[in-house]
Write a structure and sequence with these properties.
Layout (H helix, E strand, L loop, with lengths): L3 E9 L2 E9 L8 H11 L31 H4 L8 H5 L10 H32 L5 E14 L3 E14 L5 E13 L3 E8 L2 E3 L3 E15 L2 H13 L1 E16 L2 E2 L3 E14 L6 E3 L4 E2 L1 E5 L3 E3 L11
């Protein structure tokens, strides 16, 4: 036969200790406590003197053979009931914020709408540019004269009169010349005279003639420059440089480009002198100029499409 498991309980110092006993099939000696318990239960003895085998005694009962246990509170009766704070094991719990799904969806929609709008605008701008293909205007010096040219030891006094031809080769694109500045240089670095020109608008496939005058009175240029100009006059001609800076905008209906700076170099403008009276005329019939878009870096047009404005 299989062995029998018996559980014995003992109350000691406010704690209950359980002990499991493994015994063989019941014999006569093992049945004595059970018979004794039945006999005592049938007798009229007080309840506190009764013996219970195999069960824990209540706090108000006293088991035979053991002193009465001290009365304790329920929280201290069992050690395993003591609760350990979670924060002492896993650390303090931090609140977690959750974004509302509606707000996240709205942000994604706004972002995609912005990207799509940007792509559409870029596509329309590129398409319009390829259709119109704006080109730089063409500049040409048709006439130039110098009068009252007087040289001192280190200063120069003179008056230049120019006739400038401007041609807009674009068929459907107009050009706004917002600000124009004309200057006369001797060489590439030394500026002698400068003047502001009136702004104007030029329609597509249109040519305009501009006449302007530049004056200088006793402008300091240095003894070396005065000597070089005097030597060239004695040889019969002096080479000057006409340089124009223009802030231009291209327009075709609703389509407009941002403002850009245009640099025009007419080099050289050769003036011939026949006498010593300080008067000279333009040698040759006309002088083509070189147009550059100076939006850093400057790029030469050479009649090609205006790609430098987008750099």
């Amino acid at each position: 036969m299989e062995p029998i498991l018996l559980v014995g309980y003992r109350v000691r110092r406010g704690r209950v200790n359980a002990t499991i006993y493994k015994q063989s099939p019941p014999r006569l000696i093992t049945l004595i406590p059970i018979v004794t318990y039945i006999f005592m239960a049938s007798s009229g003895e007080p309840e506190q003197n009764k013996m219970v085998t195999g069960y824990p005694a209540f706090t108000s009962h006293v088991a035979t053979g053991y002193p009465a246990a001290a009365t304790t509170t329920t929280s201290n009766a069992y050690a395993f009931r003591t609760r350990v704070p979670i924060s002492s094991v896993y650390g303090p719990l931090e609140p977690t914020s959750y974004s509302h799904p509606v707000t996240s969806t709205l942000r994604h929609r706004v972002f995609f709408f912005f990207i799509i709008t940007l792509l559409i605008m870029a596509f329309l701008f590129l398409t319009t540019y390829l259709v119109f293909k704006p080109r730089l205007p063409v500049f040409r010096v048709d006439s130039a004269t110098v009068s009252q040219l007087n040289l001192t030891q280190s200063e120069i006094t003179a008056t230049w009169l120019f006739t400038l031809f401007v041609n807009n080769l674009n068929q459907k694109v107009g050009i706004h010349y917002d600000r124009l500045q004309a200057s006369v240089f001797y060489g590439d670095e030394l500026g002698i005279a400068m003047n502001q020109l009136a702004p104007f608008f030029q329609n597509g496939n249109n040519a305009t003639t501009i006449k302007f005058q530049l004056n200088v009175v006793r402008e300091y240029v240095g003894e070396d420059v005065v000597q070089e100009i005097s030597n060239e006059m004695n040889r019969g001609s002096v080479d000057f440089v006409l340089r124009i800076f223009a802030w231009v905008r291209f327009r075709s209906g609703f389509w407009r480009m941002r403002e850009h700076m245009l640099r025009v170099d007419c080099n050289p403008v050769r003036i011939g002198f026949l006498g010593i009276n300080g008067t000279g005329n333009f040698m040759g019939q006309s002088k083509n100029c070189e147009e550059n878009s100076c939006h850093f870096p400057c790029a030469r047009s050479n009649g090609n499409a205006l790609v430098a404005f987008y750099s």
